[in-house]
Amino acid sequence: MLGRLARWLRLLGHDVAYFRSIRDEDLVDFARREDRRILTRDTRLVQRRAARGAILIHSHELQDQLEEMLPHLGGSLTFPADQARCAVCNLPMQRLEKTLARGRVPPYVFQTQEKFVECPNCRRVYWSATHVRGIRELLKKAAASRES
142: burial class by Cβ within 10 Å (0-12, 13-18, 19+)? Predict the structure, then answer.
């Protein structure tokens, strides 16, 4: 399963469709219709002629998966907060005025943060908290590991 990788790629601004469960034939058909590449850990799926261009992910670890994705992402892993997509819905985030975040985020977050974005579909609110530093560190490690 690559659900965690899918969520991270969305936060990095990539349009990623994810299915917890889907038949191989349906996945291949979806990818062809939507002009998408398949990310999978399934070696048999990658070998299918109809799944041409699929990317085989070998690792179970997120950092290693991100490293494996580097060549397919132009060799760069960045965290463009202004281009992020909802980790759940995959839609581009929209700016949310701070006053509209009141009551939708914890009081401390409202007091300490100035910028908020929200998903236009599920209405989840996101902000640049301490976990963003962790995301940037993991991306930096993944990029450095790939270079060495």
Answer: buried
Tell me how far CA of residue 100 lies from CA of 74, 82, 95, 105, in angstroms: 37, 18, 10, 10
Quote the pLDDT of residue 108: 94
How do beta strands 55-56 and 39-40 pair?
Answer: parallel
Three-state SS string over the chain comes to: CCHHHHHHHHHCCCCCCCCCCCCHHHHHHHHHHHCCCCEECCHHHHHCHHHCCCEECCCCCHHHHHHHHHHHHCCCCCCCHHHCECCCCCCECEEECHHHHCCCCCHHHHHHCCCEEECCCCCCEEECCHHHHHHHHHHHHHHHHHHC
Q: How many CB atoms lie within 10 A of CB 110?
A: 16
User: Rounded to the nearest 5 degrees, what angle is found at the Cα of 60, between the Cα atoms of 55 and 66?
Assistant: 55
**Mind listing the pLDDT tens digit for each residue in 18-60?**
999 999 999 999 999 999 999 999 999 999 888 888 999 999 9
Q: If you count DSSP H runs as helices and E runs as strands, how many of each does the chain have, helices first?
A: 7, 5
Integer-rounded Cα Rg, in Å, for the chain is: 17
